[in-house]
Amino acid sequence: MFGLTKRLSVVACLAFVAGCGSASAPESTPDIIGVWRGTDQVGQIMECTFNPQGRLTVKISGANGSFNKRGTYKVDLSQDPAHLDIKLDDREEIHTILDHIDDKHLAFENINSSEERPTKFGDRKIVFKRQ
Description:
Helices cover 3% and strands 45% of the residues. The chain is mainly beta.
């Protein structure tokens, strides 16, 4: 596609209909429920929608087209930084880190599924604003 097949931004955003090992989001994650929008390092707009049942939708649009996927997510707030696991459609699970900055902002490190979970934020941190 346009570089997104190698790097599924979480996101992320990121994004959710295949199982992550949990049928619903943990009760300790209500602050991330909703729609979040941010821009990645190459200027692509990312929109992640987290629902209370542990499902996620990720929409990415940029100069090279758009990407729209569904999957599941799981958050572990007992870790520092918090862990965010995302499984988009038939792709490998992404293991990244999450920072719930405040009620209107969150961030995660933009990695691809072949990378190990980062232990700290670096130059691929994407900050999202609640919509």
